[in-house]
Amino acid sequence: MADLLRLVYASKINFEPASNDKSTDPVIAGILAQSRRNNEPNNIGGVLCYGDGFFFQCLEGSRPVVEQLYDRLLNDDRHREVTLLSKRPVAHRMFQLWSMKFTNVDAKIRQMLQIENLESFQPHSFSDLMVERLLIELRDASEKRRPAPIGRQGRGASARQAGAVRELMPGLVFATAAGVIAIVFGLMLAGLL
Ligand SMILES: Cc1cc2nc3c(=O)[nH]c(=O)nc-3n(C[C@H](O)[C@H](O)[C@H](O)COP(=O)(O)O)c2cc1C
After folding, report:
1. How far apart (Å, rounded) are the C-alpha atoms in residues 110 and 118?
2. Is residue 31 within 6 Å of ligand 1 at its C-beta?
3. pLDDT tens for residues 75-132?
């Protein structure tokens, strides 16, 4: 894609988080539903990470579309202290299959915070290196770690199916060719050709 941009920011929630049970906070569930609805047609992808009252979000897509979204985000009253952590052109997306992946801060991320001497999830104070490390961790985090998946978006699912078909195609072509050759040989041996 021409002029692909990766933008990462931190923000603080502006709502009372639901009690700390296993299900996704309803406000966050609403944000994710809205993100997935809007991002897929706009060819935007990314990840949203929540913990300790803070958001860390990465947006990837064409520059004008990502910049427009960031302008909307700055005025969204579900969060405040929206602070840009990184904004740079990139050659490839890290979150190709996701219109908006979601992860709660989990044990693995807490371990990373400890190494950085951070007692809680405070994305505003992340170094550039920590931003990059966290993005890699979020990219590699398995889907199992997402709490209560909310409408996995179509692009991811269809892209995975297309990928699976592409992977199987050489095998199918080979098996079909081998079958045809075997039949021709069989017919020749039987004296029918
Ligand atoms: C933390 C956070 C992350 C958000 N992420 C997205 C997003 O990825 N895509 C999006 O369209 N809106 C996102 N929003 C919502 C936007 O700020 C805005 O409300 C929305 O884009 C407006 O869309 P609408 O015109 O369909 O109502 C997010 C809001 C918050 C608070």
Report:
1. 9
2. yes
3. 999 999 999 999 999 999 999 888 999 999 999 999 999 999 999 999 999 999 999 9
Among 8, 25, 35, which residue has the most ligand 1 atoms within 8 Å of its CB, making it the best to mutate?
35
Instruction: Answer whether residue 158 is part of any domain.
Output: no
Q: What is the pLDDT of residues 2-42, one digit of tens each?
A: 699 999 999 999 999 887 666 789 999 999 999 999 999 99
Domain with 113, as residue range(s), is 4-152
CATH code, 92 = 3.30.70.100
> Would 168 be classed as within a structural domain?
no
- On whether residue 170 sits in a domain, the answer given is no
**Token match 């989990």: residue?**
106
- Rounded Cα–Cα distance for residues 5 and 93 (Å): 9
Is any ligand 1 atom within 6 A of the Cβ of residue 86?
Answer: no
Pocket lining: 36 vs ligand 1, CB cutoff 6 Å: no
Question: Is there a domain that residue 141 lies in?
Answer: yes
Give me Rg for the CA atoms of the chain.
Answer: 23
Element (H, E) at 54: strand 54-62
Q: How many domains does the chain have?
A: 1
pTM of this structure = 0.78
pLDDT at 179 over 80: no
